[in-house]
Amino acid sequence: MRQSWHDQFVESPDVLKSDHCQQTVVPMLDFAIGGDDFITMAGPCSVETEFQLMATANHVRRGGARILRGGAFKPRSSPYAFQGHGLDGLKMLAHARQESGLAIVTEVMSEEDVPLVAEYADILQIGSRNMENYALIEAAARSGRPILLKRGMVATIADLLRSAQLVLDNGNPNVILCERGIRTFETALRNTFDVAAIALLKQISHLPIIADPSHAAGHSDLVPSLARIAVAAGADGLIVEVHPNPEKAWSDGEQSLDFAGFDAMMRSIKPYLALREPVLPYRGATAVRAMEAVG
Ligand code: PEP
Ligand code: MN
Predict the structure, then answer these.
(1) What is the pLDDT of residues 257-279, one digit of tens each?
(2) How far apart (Å, rounded) are the C-alpha atoms in residues 67 and 43?
């Protein structure tokens, strides 16, 4: 018997496909996320220097990225590790945006920082560690900027959808979901890439879903493979870490692609992009119940 997803995700009714909404398309500069185009967001884990950011922005733009990523406020596992340049990092991102024409996605970590980060960013990233920080999510939603909502590392799909619903409840329809790997008993890699979550979310939710193969894998040599899997599962885009010299990166160097690696990844996903097709529309709870009644 087919289960009704609306019953399963009863706390997040508005993020699920319905007769009213089959697909959210998030407008961005001169393109959109969740529409026909596959969107690549690329850049360093942390904004380090003008040179590092500009060189990366120019390279990934030439390779087909539309959005530059880079953390100015960094959530680090250790409080003693580099925490980001803060406002100076945002200014570097603004400069890179102006020079490259790329849109900017960057993380906001506290409610108080929302107005400042929203001034500089085209998309506000809510990181994994904050996916259930509802006060932050409400403040970010009310800024009116599109929200990139990364799945928490111990969050279920229901938890992710509940946080997405909260953004909608605060009057902001522009939510982009992000699968970035979860913690499981498997420790060989940094995280376990939950590719089924991408397939499921694509089927049941109208929100765009992107994949972060960098944090999912934790190793740069696995990133192209996970990127291809994400495309095949129906992702609307990627967010991927790229650095001019990963060995010298101030954070997440082991999972960052160098420029040649980024180009190789972009080449390797091309045949998969050619196979992208619209996912069959979800029939909706009413239709399912009607079918069940028929037997
Ligand atoms: C990041 O994007 O650099 C990051 C810290 O991601 P996550 O929140 O998924 O760990
Ligand atoms: Mn990172």
Answers:
(1) 999 999 999 999 999 999 997 65
(2) 8
pTM (global) more than 0.90: yes
Q: Which of 136, 180, 183 to mutate to test the pocket of ligand 1 (most atoms within 8 A of CB)?
A: 180
pLDDT tens for each residue of 203-228: 999 999 999 999 999 999 999 999 99
Residue 193 and residue 164: Cα distance in Å, rounded? 20
Give me the number of domains the chain comprises: 1
Query: Considering every ligand atom, which ligand is closest to the CA of 255?
Result: 2
The parent domain of residue 69 ranges over 3-294
- Whether residue 228 contacts residue 195, with contact meaning beta carbons closer than 8 Å, is answered with no
CA 61 – ligand 2 centroid, Å:
20
**CATH classification of the domain holding 154:** 3.20.20.70
**Residue 36: half-sphere exposure toward Cβ, Cα within 13 Å:** 1
Alpha carbons within 13 angstroms on the beta-carbon side of residue 15 total 31
Dihedral angle computed from the Cα positions of residues 101, 278, 180 and 260, in that order, rounded to the nearest 10 degrees: -50
